[in-house]
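Can anyone check this?
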Amino acid sequence: MNNEWTMQKFMKGAVLLTIAALIVKALSAVYRIPFQNIVGDQGFYIYQQVYPFIGVLTVWTSYGFAVAISKLLADAHDQSNLNQRSTILRIAFIYLSVISIVSFTLLFTGADVLARWMGDEELAQLLRTGSFVVLLMPILALLKGSFQAEGRMEPVAYGQVIEQMVRVTVILVGTYVVVKTGASLYTAGSTALLGAIVGEIAGIILLLLFIRKKLSYSLFKKRQGKVPVGPIIKDLTIISLSVSMSSLILLFFQLVDSFTIFSSLTETGMNRLTAMETKGTYDRGLPLVQMGILIASTLSLSIVPLIAHTTQKKTGRNAIPYAQLTFRIALLFGTAATLGLILVLPPVNEMLFETRDLSATLMIFCIQIFWLSLILTMTSVLQGLGKVVLPAFLLITGLILKWLCNAWLLPKYGIMGAAIASNVGFAFITLSLYVYVYSIWKIRFATAKFYGHLGVASLFMIVTVMMWGIIADSWIFDGFSSRISAMFTALTSVGLGAIVFLLYIAKSRIVAEKEWFLLPLGRRMAMIQLWLHSEKRKG
């Protein structure tokens, strides 16, 4: 009975943590839209040039290390290992502190050098501001890891949401005030980065309040006992990188763009202001991609413990149906989100960002949704199986390919070249991961019937959205202002396309009702599918 209660408690916490992660990801995508509206394309360029530096360190330490710490603590969960657990915490704190101090020093003192490499020396002030975020990482990672090790996900979930909400509020309110006072856009960018610092402070305060209420202080007491330092540091590094690598890869791709796009555009003769605005317009694609991969993110968060559990239970064969289902759903919605967004991108671009500038480039940019949906899913499957080394190598290889393609394509095709290069890198990673997963299981993830119905559903959606978009944009909503017309066209097109696609998928029954019930938020789709087929039987 106690075990059942514990499992129930764990599952409830895991679901809460998944919901919190989705809220954080959604906020991360959405806040960029009003932010771009406040600061314009030039201001958006300034912020996005520096954000990847901070984002990489934040994700790695506050997420990756938190999971790594929780795993090591959980492995030494009984009281007889209390000395070992307290030692793990001390080693983790010292190790993270060293990483934080070194990272802070490199960012703060090397800000001028990094800014010159990016081709814009004024970015140095933003790098110095953002560097202070890193100093908060050790305590945040330790607190999160400690709670997760005890199976108490609620404080972590609440902390993540509060941290992000405070961050977004400070960014939007702060930049609005700064811009209205007439300060430079670089000052506005520095203010936005302050939001990350304030958000993390808020998250730490909340977690400390939970510690004061419930968490045992015994873990943090200094105890005698010898625990080998090397293996702990090794495990912390490997686990933290493996669990965060799929999230880090998009940030690393952005980092490559930060170093290459602006400098390449200016070197080819474009004036600096136009180059800044062009890069800022290109960066509009990021929140669109983030929103497009939300379903895949949900699946990746839920599949790891499921795969890990079924693999340990018997031979590993029990994990195969779950992996197949997850892949099919990621492929299904990754395809729908990619095609749907490409079809409506011009009006979506205007609705969200005021103009339709670079819509063709952003269409190419948004193909990343398809690749990332599959990458997130397959890396999660492999993580659940304990396979982390080769996937990390493939991700790094894809990153190198992205850099090489940027160097080759940017001078030839301008900003479009960077969008193509991203897709080349992600396509390589996707196909390589697929081959690797296939080499482990020797199974087909989907049947020919599935691919056929997916193709037909996509075709129906494409025809419907294109026809409606032409009618809506040029006739039905033509009497409104340009941006309002774009909004109505975009929203109705998205809604109509989603209905057509999902109804066909439900009618074709390529995902069974019992499979929908296994997925986060899949219950409603299962009910629609059951209703459609009950109506068919009545007829």
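Reply from J.R.: I decoded it. Residues 1-247 form one domain.
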